[in-house]
Design brief:
The complex is a heterodimer of chains A (about 325) and B (about 475).
Chain A: H1 17-21, H2 25-56, H3 74-79, H4 83-115, H5 130-138, H6 145-155, H7 162-169, H8 185-210, H9 214-222, H10 227-238, H11 240-256, H12 258-264, H13 277-287, H14 291-316
Chain B: H1 13-32, H2 34-41, E1 77-82, H3 89-101, E2 107-112, H4 115-124, E3 131-133, H5 142-147, H6 155-159, E4 181-182, E5 185-186, E6 189-201, H7 202-208, H8 216-228, H9 244-257, H10 259-266, H11 276-290, H12 303-311, E7 317-321, H13 324-327, E8 338-341, E9 357-366, H14 374-384, H15 387-397, H16 415-427, E10 431-432, H17 436-439, H18 443-454, H19 460-476
Parallel strand pairs in B: 1-2, 1-3, 9-10
Antiparallel strand pairs in B: 3-9, 4-5, 6-7, 6-8, 6-9
Helix pairs in contact in B: 1-2, 3-14, 3-15, 9-10, 9-11, 11-19, 18-19
Classes of the chains: A mainly alpha (about 325), B alpha/beta (about 475).
Chain lengths: ~325, ~475
């Protein structure tokens, strides 16, 4: 990041600070409309609900008219003794590590292939047909998560599903009900997410790689740098910021997962093998009508998400930048 | 009920039925207090102390034998119907009949899938309809309606003379009013009757020379015969409906041990799942799992796929509610001849006869207490509760109403409806219903548990222990309102 210049261009007319601060109707209007309104909206529709949720998490509110009773941290104590919640939290943490890792590694590899993966002679370019691959791999991203969930439920179906059918063609049909088997269900759902989102991160990385100055890449090549080394040791450090942003986004997806889980394993899977906090929260609030407890889950999820974002963003930051 | 077009997030018809009742009861408990419900469950009859605050007075018309509510012939009547799985034609037909009785009345029958968004403002504005069908995913808070006195008591309705002679009360299936009784008073008239049974193809049974099962041993014999032909006995949707088999197991246990078994379960007693008949029922299911009678792959699919496997001949029988024929319309082969048989007996010496059924009523109709034409609303219900209209409903929807003996021998060509009707008639007073799953929201947890059990990952004893600890947790949790179960 370059520091922002604060110098006034020498040719521009010099103004005193007092003149800048003069209150005129148009300035007031400007601040009210550009600062006041958004701030008001932000407070009303973001800050206030969050504050409410935190408050409700300390009560036994059931989502009905009756006034909630303040019960301190009892909801939180209850959550951390609830095996289903702990299972959900564990699953979320597993996904939080696994999903960004898999997606970023694959997306980066694909992005490299379509940008600098081509012939090492002549101009730097991607593999043959790079444009086509780039376009096609973006397709899954435009499919809504709900549809992806439904499609993959069919693919994983033990009765003539595409996966078991394909394995059957090579004589390997294991007869596994992928989404119903506690050993595979979470992986199966995770792979659907990877398929869905991979294209987006690839496009993100492609754009980032294009912004890497061509001279640097060419210089590295002239110095005898191979494609693998070029991508890992030259390009990757230069797009670090994009990678960390991608990691945060994917981390948030992994901590949410509601749509995928709800569609593919509606009750949190056999033996709660695919339970995640968001789905359990939904059940607690809207089926069991325990809004206080559900709010506590929401607060825990929010804290985990923030912690993840902070760690990733600080972890990727380097002193020399 | 057509699931594919239903916008509800609940997956199976059983869940929908359960959720509506759970909401109903949960809100009733919160609104009117638990005592109200305990009294409610104690049954009707004690309406002497009723001061008529929520009642509907007689109308401006002259009260007579033919017009028990004093309906004014000139006043319009406004009815709102939930346009769900049963459509709205049956109500329009009832409206036509109402017009025949009161030619000067302007009858307006409208329908919607959004009961709550459409009607809540009308209640707040003081112009609610005269009668409405509080059903579907977006139904109104029934408990709040009752608690706030927004809906009228229907005791006058069931005491009134039926269009066919006798009182309406006497024309109903025993126990069918229970779901609409609060604090001993009737507020909702549940119009549709649901029987939980084991469903199968009579044609298949005739072709294979199997007899319809009465006991669990019969079921297992058929399972063995089916296995020999490469067919599974039971299909199952492990993702969202494996607890249909929980219903089967508990119903078998209740038929074996009597209604006390059900009461212990509904009271969440510490030894509810240690009762002999429950042990026997879970062991019976385990035998079927071990014998490989459950269709493989069930753990990974939903009820829709499982039911499609069943009607296309990959499995023999399926425990479900009587909505199943309507739900499978369009997939079931023409000549399938779907029929239901009552829950099998664990032994021939059970406490309840082989004919006993698990049955309950749904689709609650309310008359708002502020209705402009309350008597008209009651009268409309009286029309709906006539034999003619009940038959019309059954004909249109292949579902029984709460009116007994209204389905003709041929059941309008529906073998499933005919068998449902036979089961209801044969059962008589021998009906029961299991409440704790819906009362305490155990649906999702029983699904994931039963999928483990039916996959063979849990033994029957482990499954029972887990069920017991599930209800123990509910019982010991003071933050959950408990509903009383009458002696």
């Amino acid at each position: 990041m370059t520091s922002i210049t604060t110098e006034v261009p020498s040719g521009a007319p010099v103004r005193t600070r007092g003149a800048r601060r003069r209150v005129t109707p148009s300035r007031v209007l400007f601040f009210v409309s550009f600062l006041g309104l958004p701030l008001l909206l932000y407070v009303v529709i973001v800050v206030w609900p969050i504050a409410q949720a935190i408050y409700y998490s300390l009560t036994d509110w059931r989502g009905l008219g009756a006034a909630p009773e303040f019960i301190g941290l009892a909801n939180y104590a209850r959550l951390f003794q609830d095996p289903t919640f702990l299972k959900a939290l564990t699953n979320n943490l597993i996904l939080m590590v696994a999903l960004p890792t898999v997606v970023i590694v694959l997306a980066f590899a694909l992005a490299i292939l379509v940008t600098v993966g081509g012939s090492t002679r002549g101009e730097i370019r991607g593999v043959r047909g790079a444009n086509f691959f780039r376009m096609v791999s973006f397709f899954p991203y435009v499919i809504p998560a709900v549809v992806v969930g439904i499609l993959f439920a069919f693919i994983y179906s033990p009765n003539g599903g595409l996966l078991n059918g394909t394995l059957g063609l090579i004589g390997l049909d294991p007869g596994i009900a992928w989404l119903g088997d506690p050993n595979f269900a979470l992986i199966a759902v995770g792979l659907a997410v990877v398929w869905n989102l991979l294209g987006f991160y690839m496009v993100l990385f492609v754009a980032a790689i294009h912004s890497v100055p061509a001279e640097i890449v060419e210089a590295a090549r002239l110095d005898g740098c191979g494609r693998l080394r070029l991508s890992v040791q030259v390009i990757l450090p230069m797009i670090r910021e994009n990678v960390s942003t991608a990691a945060v986004y994917m981390g948030i997806v992994a901590l949410d997962m509601f749509v995928y889980i709800q569609v593919m394993t509606p009750n949190g899977g056999t033996a709660k093998s695919t339970e995640v906090i968001s789905r359990y929260l939904y059940q607690t609030a809207f089926f069991d009508s325990r809004f206080g407890l559900a709010s506590a889950m929401g607060v825990v999820l929010a804290l985990v998400t923030m912690l993840m974002a902070v760690i990733v963003l600080f972890g990727f930051r380097r002193k020399d930048v | 009920m057509d699931d594919s077009t239903d916008p509800t997030i609940l997956d199976t018809p059983a869940e929908k039925l359960g959720a509506s009742r759970r909401l109903f009861l949960g809100l009733a408990g919160a609104g009117a207090g638990v005592a109200a419900l305990s009294a409610c469950a104690a049954g009707g009859g004690s309406s002497e102390e009723d001061d008529g605050e929520a009642g509907i007075g007689t109308g401006e018309g002259e009260v007579s034998e033919d017009n028990p509510f004093g309906v004014s012939g000139e006043q319009p009547v406004d009815v709102v119907i939930f346009n769900g799985g049963y459509g709205d034609q049956y109500a329009k037909d009832a409206g036509t009949k109402y017009e025949e009785l009161y030619p000067d009345a302007d009858v307006k029958v409208s329908s919607t899938v959004n009961i709550q968004p459409d009607l809540q403002p009308r209640f707040i504005g003081g112009n609610p309809p005269d009668l409405f069908d509080n059903s579907g995913a977006q139904s109104m808070n029934a408990g709040a309606l009752v608690g706030e006195g927004s809906v009228a008591e229907l005791d006058p309705l069931i005491e009134a003379a039926s269009l066919d002679g006798g009182t309406i009360k006497d024309s109903l299936i025993p126990g069918s009013l229970d779901a609409g009784i609060y604090s001993g008073k009737l507020y909702a008239l549940n119009y549709v009757y649901t029987v939980y049974a084991v469903w199968l193809s009579r044609k298949q049974f005739e072709e294979k020379g199997w007899t319809l099962p009465v006991t669990w041993d019969d079921v297992m014999t058929i399972g063995e015969a089916a296995k020999a032909e490469g067919i599974a006995l039971f299909p199952w949707g492990g993702q969202n409906a494996s607890n249909y088999y929980r219903e089967l197991a508990l119903s078998m246990a209740i038929k074996e041990g009597g209604v006390d078994v059900q009461k212990k379960l509904d009271r969440l007693e510490p030894d509810a799942f240690e009762q002999d008949s429950v042990i026997a029922a879970y062991a019976a299911i385990e035998d079927a799992v071990k014998a490989g009678y459950f269709l493989s792959g069930g753990a990974g699919i939903k009820h829709t796929e499982a039911q499609a496997q069943w009607v296309t001949g990959k499995a023999v029988m399926y425990p479900s509610g009587s909505w199943i024929e309507n739900e499978q319309k369009g997939i079931t082969p023409e000549d399938y001849e779907m029929v239901g048989v009552p829950t099998p007996q664990l032994s021939t010496g059970g406490a309840m006869p082989a004919e006993a059924i698990h049955g309950t009523a749904g689709e609650p109709f309310f008359v708002p207490s502020d209705a402009a034409n309350g008597p008209g609303g009651l009268e409309f219900l009286r029309v709906m509760l006539s034999r003619e209209q009940a038959q019309n409903f059954s004909k249109i929807t292949s579902s029984p109403t709460v009116l007994k003996d209204t389905i003709p021998e041929d059941a309008f060509g529906s073998t499933a409806l005919a068998s449902t009707n036979e089961m209801i008639t044969a059962a008589g007073e021998n009906t029961f219903h299991i409440n704790h799953r819906d009362w305490y929201g155990l649906g999702p947890d029983t699904v994931t548990l039963w999928t483990e059990f039916l996959s063979g990952d849990l033994t029957a004893d482990e499954a029972r222990e887990r069920e017991q600890s599930m209800i123990d947790a509910v019982r010991e949790d003071d933050s959950i309102e408990k509903f009383d179960v009458p002696e």
